[in-house]
């Protein structure tokens, strides 16, 4: 399905701009008018990370006139294998600053607006209203749902991608023109049930592929070129080297874009209640003693960061799916103390909530996870 161009053309191109964009304007599908639409366009990129790196780079090179970038992180060494908008000399700098420097180097005709903050509910609608479309490079479900709600309520399209290990997905969500993200994924998954890239790992080039594709979809929407990925999810398997697509439909009963919506504002997701925690020092004192079991809920691939011995291993996803039922039954029966750990303390907190719900008497989360235990830096 084709759509009208999202953006009206800006003023005529200058001589230097004509030279810069000559290979674009030669394409009849874009032409000089399409290039003027790009120059007048305002695109917000959420996250200056793996997906944001290529999206920002190619949107800037393509001459998108105003590019906003929102991120509250600083550059860490573990980012560099998949986030080439940042370099070695940017370590410790805010990601929006190094992204802004890079974009300015690529194209001086682009105005870049840096928002050094989290994409939060209180500013989400105002931010969305300042842009023609949003490229979502968020790496977490909370932000993804905030972006979804803000875009649908503002009536603008939302170019989404997500990546994990070797698999990528992409779609253009656009309430009123096709499904929104909530039509297909109504609610966030339970906390901890889906491993993040930090936990499961990711092929460094994969966000490059998917983020560049997001930039292509954004350019198509702005200029009204081709067939945007509205109403379908494009799936890429980098290991197999395959591309597939799954059609998806708007749901009339969608809480966000259906005929009787119940989501009328952007809200922060409810915070999970706190859980009992225990320090690494306190665990060292009781480790190996009777009546104490240490439970590791990380993925096996994370053992390289160290392990606590003795411990039992049940990955969080398996635990929540009931695969540790024998252990849970034993702990419930004996009343022994269960200390749960993961990498940094987030998944273990979810596991503790689950165990307490299941009737285990004493379950605690190791504060700071294996990082605190081994003194590793993040
Ligand atoms: Zn919907």
Protein model, in words:
There is one protein chain. By secondary structure, the protein is α/β, with parallel strands linked by helices. The chain folds into two domains: 15-247, 3-Layer(aba) Sandwich (Rossmann fold), CATH 3.40.50; 277-374, 3-Layer(aba) Sandwich (Oxidized Rhodanese, domain 1), CATH 3.40.250.10. Helices cover 35% and strands 17% of the residues. Strand 4, helix 7 (141-154) and strand 5 form a beta-alpha-beta unit. Helix 4 (52-61) crosses helix 10 (206-223) and helix 6 (121-129) packs across helix 7. Zinc ion is lined by residues 175, 179-180, 182-183, 250, 254, 256-257.
The parts where pLDDT drops under 50 for at least 5 residues are none
Mean pLDDT: 92
Number of strands: 13
Gross CATH architecture of the largest domain: 3-Layer(aba) Sandwich
Q: How large is the radius of gyration?
A: 23 Å
Distance between the termini: 46 Å
Per DSSP, what share of the residues sits in E-state strands of 2 or more residues? 15-25%
Tell me the count of domains: 2
Question: Do you know the CATH topology of the largest domain?
Answer: Rossmann fold
Strand order of the largest sheet: 3-2-1-4-5-6-7-8
**How do the SSEs run, as a string of H and E?**
HHHEHEHEHEHEEHHHEEEHEEHHEHEH
